[in-house]
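Now for our target.
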Amino acid sequence: MTSKKPTSKTARLSGPSPSNQILRRALIQNRQAFLQFLNRRVKNMEIAEEILQQFSSNSS
């Protein structure tokens, strides 16, 4: 008897798990909040986005 464990392929087809959705939503919300903070500090959205992009690429 073999157990059917979900493979990465079947997991992708069934959609993201609730915990992954919560994590993704939190990351998006925190990114937006940080971008708003930067925008208030530099008073220029384009510069704030550049700073966030540099910060994101350096932390990967």
